[in-house]
Design brief:
Helices cover about 40% and strands about 15% of the residues. By secondary structure, the protein is an alpha/beta fold. The strands form two sheets. Strands 2-1-3-10-4-11 form a six-stranded mixed beta sheet, with helices on both faces. A five-stranded mixed beta sheet has the order 7-6-8-5-9.
Amino acid sequence: MSGRERLTAVLAGLSLALLPAVSPPLTGLPIGAAGLSPILQRAQAQQPLLRISAIPDQNPEKLNRLYGQVAAELGRQLGVTVQYVPVTDYTAAVSAFRTGSLDLVWFGGLTGVQARLQKPGAQVIAQRDIDAAFTSVFIANRRSGLQPIRQQKQLTVLKGRRFTFGSESSTSARLMPQYFLSQAGVQLRDFAGGTPGFSGSHDATIALVQSGAYDAGVVNEQVWKANLRSGKADRSKVFVLWRTPGYPDYHWIGQPDLDKRFGAGFTAKLRGAILSWRSTNPQQKAILELFGAQQFTGAKAGDYRRIEQVGRQIGKIR
């Protein structure tokens, strides 16, 4: 190779080295994730991060799988970095939203109302097609001697029984079930020991009632059906005692400053992305199946007025 050819090769190599790195789309990886180039890490650090979360109503493994997929899909549709941030309990989800540590949260009816009251301007983004008239089921252990009931007033059969709710802040496993119980004349002090249990989640309630640790409990019907399909709930050991009337429940809530942080019209774009999810798209189909829904629909704060009223009645909203 001549001196001129060597010089040309060296200059070409330097030119390639100075070219900016070509970055793949940002699809929900946390900032500074292992394996990213320093250039890509700096690019991510300069962009706002959309932090999503959800009340921990089911086992962590399912939540991580579901919301990891949600983060990836929203990142693809919106062109921003999206990160799923787990929380320890329902109260932590509300607190983190209030302080601005979370941008978009999948709340239950009660926690959603609490979050909006504590963060004026927060936006109701969407709900599932099943959330306008959601239902809970009271379940009982086969060995308890309890039998299925047809009327709400028959909930008095639970007096003196070992009974557990789910989380203390759950709409479907505490708030509305307690409301229906009180309408039937059953107060919390009427359960065995003068107080009910609080398992912390729907999955835990099913396991506790099935084991016989409690005679009965209450869970949201969607999780009950999912546990039946997976085989975790055994009909020979636990059964549905009574199904509640419908009430409004889960919904996505976003921070009031999303447009300021991510650009004008971002909240509408976010809402449009979630409402666009369809089972004809393989990634979106997997998400919808994990949510137990056919699609997401529009929702507004007024849809949850009844939840706020009941929350105030039982002292969960002040």
